[in-house]
Each structure stands twice: as structure tokens, then as C-alpha cells.
Specification:
It is built from twelve helices and 21 strands. β1 and β2 form a beta hairpin. The longest helix is centred in the middle third of the chain and has 19 residues. It has about 425 residues and is of the alpha/beta class. α2 packs parallel to α9, α7 runs parallel beside α8 and α8 packs parallel to α9. The protein has two domains: about 160 residues, Lyase, Ornithine Decarboxylase, Chain A, domain 1 (Beta Barrel), CATH 2.40.37.10; about 170 residues, Alanine racemase (TIM Barrel), CATH 3.20.20.10. Strands 4, 14, 15, 16, 17, 18, 19, 20 and 21 form a nine-stranded mixed sheet that branches. Strands 5-6-7-8-9-11-12-13 form an eight-stranded parallel beta barrel, surrounded by four helices. It binds pyridoxal-5'-phosphate.
């Protein structure tokens, strides 16, 4: 039992859907990200079904995993997108996503990014400061366009998650306080090239409780009431992303309960509801497949040195995040306690501490729950080409990103001529 329905053992071999993971390792090499189309589809449908009674739009947060195959599958299911850069907008377009279902978040949008988004006609800019609003108004004016805007409100709610991914407290860099938002919406006449269409918040990531979401949506609803009392028309309410997933023993709310709570909390609003889930759509739809290079037994500890590293999956090093690490095939040996580490020259380069595993050199391991903030946060540190990515669909395996080559990494560098 792995706890993940699309990743299961059949007679001691770990499968993704109908394909044994060792077969993928043989064909595509390691490290390799492996995704399940069925798991991705199921998560999207769970959101969509739970929202069936409401006018809604699910805007997948592209930064969680931006491979164009994943964006394309979500677009085909009807998904919209939440982007945080012009680069992500280009990916959405390349993947066949609809710009008119795309919202643009982030505190530091450049003029060039605003131009690109205005040009393709995105659904809405989630604006995070008055300075940004001025710049957007100016840019839209130069282009003879009107920019649709939601202010991102910082509801000052404690998401009770890791401090690096908590975004809805007043000391965080994100959004504007509710009273300031109120003042800016009422000063709409100062921004003739902006149309205020929505209200937005996003309080953090990997939330494992409902109460912060409920508190934030309550505050958003109060603000909505106040704006409507002043005669402003708001067309949509964007409640952000942040629903957590199970990495080990967390028990986050189910997608159904989360959506039901958002709908109940906003029941008297007639506006269209938007959400921006990232992790909860892709996190448990992917794993990182890696091979043991060497075992090293010292008097203090046992190390399993694997061919994936912090550059491939940064979450353990960055957030001290926990990922389950499972054998791809059982080998009948006795277990030992291992530090599962990569080849990068940093003591912080680890995938898991104190894991009970039965290992030989050359064995394969699956680092679970690696579909979100895995590949998208990867780097080339130590001149390590980034991993290949494959998507499994029943018994078919599709390569969705080729393994990088060192030549590609060096190609744009230049030696001084004199
Ligand atoms: C990162 C982010 C999300 C997605 O968060 P998840 O925890 O992956 O659901 C949604 N909205 C905004 C503005 C974000 O920055």
C-alpha cells in the first residue's frame, strides 16, 4: 500500500497506472519525474464536480508544475490558469490554454509582462499594490485598452503553514490591506484604463485545516458587502489556492469538503467563484524516480547516495519538507536506517532523513508526492542537467520533457575574446 491510488504495488513491484516504474527507469533513465494522467484528471474532476452548483472557474496555479503537457491536459478538462510571469503566460498559450480564463498574480509584474497580457486579453490582473495599479493603468492607456483588475487583498489570516509559504499575514509582502483596498476601489475614477471586476486573496500554501480558508473568505465577503453598499459591481470572487496534500501523516481537508466550505461561506454572494489550486491538483499525481548510486556506511550513519539531488527536488532542502521514499522493487534484504542524499556538494542536499529501507547499489526508489513544486523549482546547480519527465496514461508512457544535456546548459555562455 502506498496510499496513492495510481501508484500501487503488484507482486512487489511499484507501478504507476499499468506500467512498472523499473521499466520507465530502464527506458528513460534516472532521475526522472513520472506523472499519472488518471491522478491529474481525477483531482481536476473532484474540484469541478464539487463546484457544480456554482458558477465557477478553476485557475490552475501554473508555478506548481508548468510542463506544457500538464497545462494542455488541464486546458482540455476546461481549466483556467493562474500565472505569475510572462513566461508562464507563454507556456499557457503554447499549451493551448485560454488567455480569457487566465488570471495574472504576483507582486512584481513588469511593464513588458503587462503588455503581453493585455495584448492576448487575459481575464484579470490580480494587482498587489497601488504602484502596480498606476503602472497598469498607464500601460493600458498607451495600448488603448482597459485592464480588468482584482485587488489582491491581504486578509491578515494565519494560514498555520511553513513561514516561507504563508502569504496572508499583514507582515507578508503580498496584497493590500482590506481598508486600503476599499479606498482604492472607491477611487476607480483615478484609473480610467482599469475596470475593477473582482476581489482576490491567497493566504498560503499546504494548508491542512479549513479554518484559515473560512476566516479569509468571511473577510472577503465582508469587503464585498462594503463595496456593493458603495455601489460598486464586483463580478467574481477569487479565493486563491493553498489546499494542502498528504505527504506523510497530514490529514488535509478533502477537495469536496474544502470546496463545500468555500461555497457555504460565500453562499449569499452571486458572483462567480474562482480558485487557484496548484499543489492539490498535481502534487500527488507525480513521483521522482531515482537510483541508488552508492551505499556508504559510517560509524555515525548509513547513507544512500542517489542520483537525484536538491537541484531536482528542492523542497526537503528549502522547507525541510517530508516526502515518502518507497522501494520500486523489493529485494528481500533486511532494512536499515538511511540518510537518503544526493550527489550535490552541500550538507543540505538530502531527500529524506532516517528512512527505514532495504537497499543495494543500483536499486530504484520512488520519492512520492513530487508532482508539485518539484520540476518547476529545479535548477542546474553543480551543472546537473535537469531530469526527464514522463506522463503515464494507462499502459502508455509519454516523454513530456527530454532530459537536458550539458551542451544545452553551456550553449549560451561565452569566453572572453582578449
Ligand atoms: C502559489 C500560488 C497559488 C497556488 O498555491 P497552491 O498551494 O499550490 O495551491 C495560488 N495563487 C497564488 C497567487 C499563488 O502564488
Amino acid at each position: 500500500m502506498t496510499g496513492f491510488p495510481q501508484f500501487v504495488y503488484h507482486s512487489d513491484a511499484l507501478y504507476v497506472e499499468s506500467v512498472p516504474l523499473h521499466q520507465i527507469a530502464e527506458q528513460y533513465g534516472t532521475p526522472c519525474y513520472v506523472y499519472s494522467r488518471a491522478a491529474l484528471t481525477q483531482a481536476y474532476r473532484d474540484f469541478d464536480t464539487a463546484f457544480a452548483a456554482r458558477d465557477h472557474l478553476i485557475c490552475y496555479a501554473v508555478k506548481a508544475n508548468s510542463n506544457i503537457a500538464i497545462l494542455n491536459l488541464l486546458a482540455r478538462l476546461g481549466s483556467g490558469f493562474d500565472i505569475v510571469s510572462g513566461g508562464e503566460l507563454q507556456r499557457v498559450i503554447k499549451a493551448g490554454g485560454d488567455p480569457r480564463k487566465t488570471v495574472f498574480s504576483g507582486v512584481g509584474k513588469t511593464i513588458q509582462e503587462m503588455r503581453m497580457a493585455l495584448d492576448v486579453g487575459i481575464l484579470c490582473f490580480n494587482v498587489e499594490s497601488e504602484s502596480e495599479l498606476n503602472a497598469l493603468n498607464q500601460t493600458a492607456s498607451e495600448m488603448g485598452k482597459i485592464a480588468a483588475v482584482s485587488l489582491r487583498v491581504n486578509p491578515d489570516v494565519d494560514a498555520r503553514t511553513h513561514p516561507y509559504i504563508s502569504t496572508g499575514l499583514k507582515e507578508n509582502k503580498f496584497g493590500v490591506p482590506a481598508d486600503e483596498a476599499m479606498r482604492i476601489y472607491q477611487a476607480a475614477h483615478l484609473y480610467p484604463h482599469v475596470r475593477f471586476t473582482g476581489l482576490d486573496c491567497h493566504i498560503g500554501s499546504q494548508l491542512t485545516e479549513l479554518s484559515p480558508f473560512i476566516e479569509a473568505s468571511g473577510k472577503m465577503l465582508s469587503l464585498l458587502d462594503a463595496l456593493q453598499a458603495k455601489g460598486l459591481t464586483i463580478e467574481h470572487l477569487d479565493l486563491g489556492g493553498g489546499l494542502g496534500i498528504r505527504y506523510t501523516d497530514e490529514s488535509p481537508p478533502s477537495i469536496q469538503n474544502y470546496v463545500a466550505a468555500l461555497c457555504a461561506q460565500t453562499a449569499r454572494a452571486t458572483q462567480r467563484l474562482l480558485i487557484e489550486p496548484g499543489r492539490s491538483l498535481v502534487g500527488n499525481a507525480g513521483i521522482l524516480l531515482t537510483r541508488v548510486a552508492y551505499l556508504k556506511h559510517t560509524s555515525a550513519r548509513n547513507f544512500a547516495i542517489v542520483d537525484a539531488a536538491m537541484n531536482d527536488l528542492m523542497r526537503p532542502s528549502l522547507y525541510d519538507a517530508y516526502h515518502d521514499i518507497l522501494p520500486v522493487r523489493s529485494n528481500g534484504l533486511a532494512t536499515d536506517t538511511y540518510q537518503v542524499v544526493g550527489p550535490v556538494c552541500e550538507t543540505g542536499d538530502f531527500l529524506g532523513h532516517d528512512r527505514l529501507l532495504a537497499l543495494r547499489d543500483g536499486d530504484l526508489l520512488a520519492v512520492m508526492s513530487a508532482g508539485a513544486y518539484g520540476m518547476s523549482m529545479s535548477s542546474n546547480y553543480n551543472t546537473r542537467p535537469r531530469a526527464a519527465e514522463v506522463m503515464v496514461d494507462k499502459d502508455a508512457v509519454h516523454l513530456i520533457r527530454q532530459r537536458e544535456t550539458v551542451d544545452q546548459l553551456i550553449a549560451s555562455e561565452r569566453i572572453l575574446s582578449g
